[in-house]
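Run log, item B.
One chain of 359 residues. Sequence copied directly from the ordering sheet:
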Amino acid sequence: MKKILCYSLFVFQIHFLLHSSSANNNNNYNKNKVPAIIVFGDSSVDSGNNNFIPTIARSNFEPYGRDFPDGNPTGRFSNGKIAPDFISEAFGLMPTVPAYLDPSYSISDFANGVCFASAGTGFDNATSNVVDVIPLWKEIEYYKEYQRKLRTYLGEEKANEIFKEALYLVSIGTNDFLENYYTLPQRRCQFKKVQQYEDFLIGLAENFFKEIYHLGARKISLTGLPPMGCLPLERAINIMEFHGCVEEYNNVALEFNGKLGWLVSKLNKDLPGLQLVDANAYDILLQIVTQPSRFGFEVAQVGCCGTGRFEMSYLCDPKSPFTCSDANKYVFWDAFHPSEKTSQIVSNYLIEKYLAKFR
């Protein structure tokens, strides 16, 4: 009788453990308060979508990615990881956020995080045309396609829960000014004052946020413009001011960020349940650029790649003898994009100051 009882208890324990394991597997998408990281934007957050479209705005070659796991040039405009990767990992999700167009990933990989961003794009469709990249409206179309696939994979209820509880990271806008308005004549002829163009972009931004809200997004982090006058490329051509930061561009960034802050407040009032966060990184980036040693850097005026003054994308020649040996000493990786170390510092700052409430 005792043997039978012990055997019955043993079978019950095995059955319980197996059932618990199965339940855990079925619920692994809900183990975190934020079940997924979903990314929209430009090269600051593109994890490799441009690898799969016909554009010159690519970085899927050495020396890009040399500090990424296995030294893999993924299409990230960095020597290693970018901000969404660090944020995803900090939220207990994947250590890297995969690009939606990368065929080596499937919908099961995208269940916990996906990136729709495209280097070179902007709020303005005309910006994406400059180097033939994915416009923001197309990023939304890819998101809709992703939603359909995830509903098929997980079921309607589970998928909709992910769309609602996911943290959406949006980083976009710099290209609208530096690649479009200040470089090409079309928008400057249409908008005589840069403030008019800013207002035009704010209208486009409002439409974008309303659209993804109606598609289920509720937790959204918006990162505005960096001190774009301090990017190495802008400093390199600022000869008359001895290669200092271009204050006009920085002032525009501050002005535009202020308007984005107003938009965030407006949308949070207008759209029930929306938690749109103005995760402004301008101040921390300016501190890093102007006080590099405080953050463990040695060089802030130029990037690591090549001479660091104008190189980015294909100009980042893997055979250049000028590329630095240790990117951790540099605030910028190339003439336009931060190094992995800078991205990590900024990500930690944004998480602590703005995103902690979502954890």
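Observations after the first pass:
- Residues 223 and 281 are 6 Å apart (CA to CA).
- The longest helix spans residues 2-26.
Flagged for discussion on Thursday.
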